[in-house]
Amino acid sequence: MTDRMTIGVVSPGAMGAALARRWRAGGARTIATVAGRSERTASLARDLTLLPSLADVVAESDVLVSVVPPAAALRVAEDIASVAVSRAVTPLVLDLNATAPSTIEKVKLALDRGGCALVDGAISGPPPKKESDTIVYLSGARAEWVAAIAMPGVELRVVGAQIGAASAVKMCTASVYKGFTALLAQALQTAEHHHVTDIVLADLNRDFPAHVEHAARLLATAASKSDRFPGEMREIAKAQSEAGAQKVLFDALAEVYEAINGSTLARMTPEQAGSARDLSVVLAELARR
Q1: How much is the pLDDT for 2?
Q2: What is the pTM assigned to this prediction?
Q3: From edge to edge, which strands make up the β-sheet containing 154-160?
C-alpha cells in the first residue's frame, strides 16, 4: 500500500517527525514544512523531505497528518480545507490531536468543506523509535485503510468506524496519565516545602514504584511539554462534561499545568528533560518562577 504513497506531516515536532520516520521506514515518502517554526523544530525534522509551505505539503500528500496543540486543531483543519479547495486536492486527513470528540466533529465539518475525508486518531505513548511502545488508535470509515499502511515500531489499533471514538480513548487515557502526573507534581512540591519528600516517596513506592523511581524525569518531561497541556486538560474537561461527568477537576488541572508552564522547569526541552535524574533540582525549578 505504501508504494509511491506520500504522507505529509503538518507539524513535525518531536512526535510528528518521529511518526514520519516510522512511515518512511515502512516505505512511504514523507514530507513536511518547517516554515515559521523554531530552530529546534527544524533540527528535529532535518532528515525529512521539507517543502516551502503548508500549502505545498497539502498539495503533494495522499495522507495528511495533523499533530498540533489541541487549541490549534480546528484552525489547522480550516487551513487544510482552504488549501484543498484552492489547489483542487483532497488528501485524506489523519487528525492525531488530543481533543474532545465534540471538537473532532467540528474538525470533520471543516474538512468536509474542503472535500477531505477524515480519520480520527489518538496517540498513546512516547514518540516512536525503532523499538517503541507507541500505540495509535484509529476510528472512522477509512481507519482500516490507514491501519494497513506499514509503520514499523508503532502499533495501530482500529477502535471503530465512528469519528470521535479514537479521540474518546485519548481523553480517557490522558486524563489518568497526565492527571496523575499533575497530582504527583503537586504532592511532591508540597512534600519538599515541608521537608518530608523522602518519607512521601517511600510511602508512594509501595503502589507506584515506577513513578517514584522516575519521578524526576516524569515531572521534567511533563514540564517541557506543559505549554500544550492546559489546552488538553480543558478538552478532557469538555469531554467528561459532555459524558455527564464533572468538568471542574480538569479545569483545575489546566490551572496546575499553567503554573508548571510558568516555572523555570518548563524552559527545558524534552531532550533535556529526558536526562533529568535529580528530583531535588527538578522540584526547586518547579517552584521557581
Answers
A1: 43
A2: 0.94
A3: 49-50, 29-32, 6-9, 63-66, 92-95, 118-124, 134-139, 154-160
